[in-house]
Structure formats: structure tokens, C-alpha cells
Write a structure and sequence with these properties.
Four Helix Bundle (Hemerythrin (Met), subunit A); NagB/RpiA_transferase-like; about 40% helix; seven-stranded mixed beta sheet; methionine biosynthesis; alpha/beta; binds 5-S-methyl-1-O-phosphono-5-thio-D-ribulose; S-methyl-5-thioribose-1-phosphate isomerase activity; three-stranded antiparallel beta sheet; Rossmann fold; 2 domains; M1Pi_N; about 350 residues
Amino acid sequence: MKMEPLRPILFHPHIPEIEYIEQTLLPDIYEVRKAQTVEELAGAIRRLGIRGAPALGCAGACGVALSALVAKAGTFLEFLFLVRSDAERLRETRPTAVNLFYGIDFVLSAVLTSSSIEEAKCNAVDAAKAVIDADTRTCHAIGKTGLSVIPDTARILTHCNAGALACAEWGTALGVIRSAHEAGKNISVYACETRPLLQGARLTTWELLRDGIDVTLITDSMAAVLMRKRKIDLVIVGADRIVSDAVFNKIGTYMHAVCAKAHNIPFFIAAPLSTFDEENSEDKVIVEERNPDEVRKFRGCVTGPELVPVWNPAFDGTPVDLVTGIITEYGIFSLPRDIETIKQLKRGKDMG
Ligand code: MRU
């Protein structure tokens, strides 16, 4: 039986509210929650109830539109002040995934170029819907692009969750896997658990099992030996930000890229154009450092001494020379070779 597409974020402007799957509770509890204020939405983003770069872009976009809809302002200037402040609040939730800022800025600019409160509300809603629709189309296009690099039978390693739960629908890395499965290819996936918050174990395996795609869960430290035993044909992961010289993705991605290179295994990134921050380089990217307790405990279970010092970066940068190709909605690119093409595409692109 074919499952309904997973859509982790829905925007209901008439209520107004943002409905989202609370991802911290998966896989044991599937709960849909509602954010009716920007503060509630910001909380969901901070605790990773909503997560994954493209989904953060959708959340940021809907959050600014929600702000416009609920703003209680006497004048247009006061209205603009309130919406801008909410946009800043959303911007401060997480620093690394560039899609978040892209979504926020896209809707904010629709508000700022309006000339009345009513017009701004309409424009904000349209812009937020456009971000979600564009991400949905884009993920399906990434899936199609990726078909050319997936052999008819393929054992694929992935890290973290770059699936429907991380996007508006379908997914980026898992979007390629879904499209290949749908095209009749014989796909089996190794999902890394992705310490410390287990997005691979909790979310990727849940999504793939739901779609009937063959998946085996491994701990992050098992990937190297699988590659050495020639049990992985290619690696595909998502990205939170792609700069001119590196790809940022969930912590642990770099280690898989190094291992893939050592074993001559193709290492692909799947990401939309909105994940590129091509004017910047690795040294300019702020890597989010999260609460040490995420490493000392998991859901209340102690995994390390209470007072042990912890380093908990959420992401790492993989130098572009370790990346075989970046699968996008516009084709497969390689950096630094295609940087000018990326810049041109971004200049010419609008969300619709
Ligand atoms: O901390 P998270 O769960 O938001 O991190 C998510 C990732 O690193 C994903 O791999 C990335 O956002 C790509 S999602 C299509």
C-alpha cells in the first residue's frame, strides 16, 4: 500500500497556525503540534521539533507570515517593526542552515515591499506558500536528477536525516533514494544512527520503513568497515550550507567523506540551490554548538558523567575535493569548477 506523502510542516493562514510533526518524539510517538505564535515556532526549531535545512526554510517563511497575520499594530510602521523583530527572533534560533535565513528573508521582503498592512499580510501568505511549494517541487526534481548516478542495484550509505521530515516533502538525499526506488531500482540503505540526537536511527529508518525501502541501521562508527568490506556502492547525504570550499552537514559527515575517498566510493551531496551560500567560505560559517547535555544524556538516560566537559558541534565542514558531485534541481555540480554557474543560477532564480 502506498503511503500518503510525509509533510512535516503545514501552514494554515486562515486560523492562523503552523502545524508540524514534533520530530523529537519520533519514532515511538507521532504527534502533530500547532504553533500559533512565533515564540512557539522558535521553541520548536530550537529543540529540533522542526529540523533539517529545507524544513527550516519553510518554517522561517511561515513564521514571518504568521507574525504578519497576528501582529497587533495601529500603524503600518508599527506593523513593520513587529514583523521585523519576529524575523530576527526566528533568525536567532539556529545559525548554520542557510535555508532558514533564505525563507525568512523571502517572506520579509514581500512584507517590506508592501504598502499597507492588509497588502503585506496577503503578500506574506503568498510568499510563505511559494517557499513550501518550491521546496516540494525542488525535492522531486533533485530526486530525478539523482537517478543518473544510482546504479540499478545500489547499497547506499546515508547520514542524519535528509528526508521528507527535513523538507516540505520527499527529501533531498532520501528524495534521490525514493525516486530511485520508485523507478524500480534495487536499493538498500545503510542509515547511520547520527550521534548524539539520532536523527538517522529515529527518523531516517522510520521514513524508509514507512515507504517499504530496505534499510539497515548501523552506528556511526560502523560505516568505515562496511566500506572496507565493499558493502557500500555510494554515499548520499544532505547539506545545511554549501560554501565555495566546503559542504556543511550533520556532524560525522566529514568522517564518512574521508572514508569514502580512502575506499574509492562516490560521495554525493543532494541539496537545493537554496542551500548554497556560494559567496562565503568555510572560515565564515558559524557552526552551532548545542547543549552539552545532549551528549551526556539521551531522553533522560545518563550516557556520561554529569560534570564531564563536552564539545557538541551540530555540524562539520567537508572540503569540496572529497565530494564527487552535488545533486541539485538543476543538475549535478562540482565545486570549485561550477561556482560561476551556481552564482548565475542563483541570480536568475525566483521562488516560484
Ligand atoms: O540538526 P538537524 O537535524 O537540523 O540537522 C539536519 C542535517 O544535518 C541534514 O542532513 C541537513 O539539514 C540536510 S536536510 C535535507
